[in-house]
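= Protein in question =
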Amino acid sequence: MDKKKLMLLVGALIIAVGTAFMARSMFAGAGAPKADAASMAPKGPKVLVAQRALPVGTIITADAVSYQAWPKDMVQDVYFIDGEADISKMLGTVVRFPITAGEPITQGSLVAPGDRGFLAAALGPGMRAVTVPVSAKTGVAGFVFPGDHIDLVLTQTIKAEEGEPLRASETIIRNLRVLATDQSTESETVEGKTVVREFKTVTLEVTPKIAEKIAVAQTIGTLSLSLRAISDNQGELERAIAAGDVSIPAGASKDDEEKILKAAMNRPLDNNATFVTGGDVSRFQRRSMPATKTQQMQEFAKSYGQGVAQGLGPAIAGAASAGGTVSIGPVVRVTRGKTTEAVSVSK
């Protein structure tokens, strides 16, 4: 074999052996910190800590908390200790004070259903709680539970000066969160099944302005609940993002982004109200309000002149006082002797 080729082969072999030794040293060095980290892990009782940031009003769920080993000399009496506290009893409680991710949860930071201040802690910032009376018919037969979202429907009868009244129903507010039914803020379960029961009142989370609207609406007509599908909130959130109503600032963390989106999904909506009148349901009902006597006179004067309208004034007033209706259509002048009278002719 050529001496030059032999030298190249020996050199390549030396480089390969050196590379192998270097790689082995690197892997061995990477394993050392793991062993050190394992030896530095706190050795002590396990305490309940937050898995993520929990702002005020957060309802505790199974994925929000977990037990974690904690240095024994740093454990306090207010912590929840594994083996001493039952985590299942904490599910459904509400966070009273802000808790950061990884922070131990104290006994004073949670409010259980039925405790004083629970409802106030469950409210979001700037929100209010209002109570609406319902029945089995207006309350979805009891199939509404705390945590559900509903629409509020107002049904009313508007009296008319003449003829049949106008009957109307309209959705005045959408996406309201149910806080409680009667005096209960949690659902009752028996053998793993939710108990459906009739309730007489429902407490809703609203903004201060919507609270005023609901107070007035209760004096106008009857309020009914309309249960929303869970998927509706996600669909409306996507439409709000597409329209630019919801924006996430640049550089926002994942927790901040989730907080913004959650607030947007739970936001009550009092715009784009829809309505239905009696005429939309039955051909024998009114679709709109009939014109008042004053409006009839103004419309007649606009069409036929003020003088003719004044001539028909006594006839309109007389028909109205007798409980009849006034026909407005073509007008003819009738002269009897020296008196000329404008008379409307029905079409």
In short: The chain has four domains: 1-41, 46-111, 124-281, 293-344. The chain is about 35% helix and 20% strand.
